[in-house]
Amino acid sequence: MTATDLERELARLADTFDPPVVPVSADLARGRRRLLRTRATVVGAAAATAAVLASATLLGQGTPRSDPQPVDRTPDPDRTTAATDPVRALPDLDPRNDNATPLSRWNDLLAEHLDPRREHLQPYTRGTANSQTGDGYLGSRFTWTNPGEDGMGMLVVGVARSHRAAWDSPCKTGAYDVTCRDARGPDGEPARVGTSDSVTTVEVEQADGDVVTLTLDLLFGNNSLVPISGTDITVEQLLEAAADERLDLPEPPPVSSIDPAEFQDALATVAGGGRELMGFPAGGASLFEGGVFEKRRQVASVNADAFPVSAGYGLPSACPEKVYRSCGRREVDGVQVFVARDRQPYFPGTEVVFAGTENVVRVQWMRSGDGGADPDLDELVALVTDPRWQT
């Protein structure tokens, strides 16, 4: 194996660590998961000095207690059954949640250009394709197969507001060892084309300024160790598909009507007396992002967000083993709540998601170190299912 081959294999291994498949969001929150622990550390440093404390967002405490209560780490089977029984396929999925996202529409459009008989490009579902998001960017990786072969390739699509936002472009990042050149789209659009032994990528700047990147790779390194033998897709076909203006970046999703301050008060109660929440100002889908502190020592990191059901969000539709140690659905008062124990390197803690009549509410709780605090699972479930978040 040459040094180039080794670099490529390492890049593929890194690609296996995709954001969890969560309400398309959620992911929408891709950067938030990676930054949460770093930001929580910053908040912890802020707690060390009064000057920085003054600039932090102090959110209040829960029900007062005379003394801080010790953390009870004794497992409670009644509370953790749903999270300790691994479930790899979640039943009763609402197909609306797959169809509502623009990624489903993009998949159909790309099939129209590249695979009209649907012999290769697999349809989009949130259980088989991820959602990659960023500031002014949305993308995904679709499965590409050849009939009669065990291998799996992928078609990567990314749409960005500008070249600056097109962070996943191989011609920009140098991924896949592609050699790039300037080109033109079918109507003279500025374009770039990159090729390597097993990868073909194109980047087209559309008339409205959106930049579309399509990358066809013979190996879907996230999901397979076996590549497909090849494809008959030409550079011209990829350029034509990338120039299709129906590959448009959607407007930012609507924000839920939940009052972050009210939610944070309720979260403070879950954190318990003698503790306080300190975090960054809420905005967009975020309801809280920060830490739980006890005597100025951080005991947990917490991320909470909400997404409108009307935008197509729902409960997670899959339980990838590389993302979750265990997960499942727990019935509470006749409704389903998603409960999971997440793995490194995403968010090694507890995740609870509830899809109500108006909003999908999610809370992630990660204890900080050996002396950290675990959440009360019943209280987290009660928090996300609180009727106040559905009005």
What structural class do helix, strand and pairing data support? alpha+beta
Arrangement of strands in the largest sheet? 1-9-10-11-15-14-13-12
Gyration radius from CA atoms, angstroms? 23 Å
Q: Helix count?
A: 10
What is the helix content? Answer: 10-25%
pLDDT < 50 runs, ≥5 residues: 1-100
Number of domains: 2
Largest sheet: 8 strands, antiparallel
> What is the succession of H and E elements?
HHHEHHHEEEHEEEEHHEEEEEEEH
Tell me the distance between the termini: 59 Å
Rounded mean pLDDT score = 75
Principal-axes shape call: elongated
Keywords: Membrane, Transmembrane, Transmembrane helix
Region (Disordered): 59-103
Transmembrane segments: 40-60
Secondary structure elements and their pairing?
Elements: H1 3-15, H2 30-46, H3 50-55, E1 57-61, H4 77-84, H5 96-99, H6 102-114, E2 132-134, E3 137-144, E4 153-160, H7 170-173, E5 179-184, E6 190-195, E7 199-205, E8 211-217, H8 235-242, H9 260-271, E9 275-279, E10 286-294, E11 297-308, E12 324-332, E13 335-342, E14 350-355, E15 359-367, H10 377-384
Antiparallel strand pairs: 1-9, 2-3, 3-4, 4-8, 5-6, 6-7, 7-8, 9-10, 10-11, 11-15, 12-13, 13-14, 14-15
Keywords: Membrane, Transmembrane, Transmembrane helix
Transmembrane segments: 40-60
Region (Disordered): 59-103
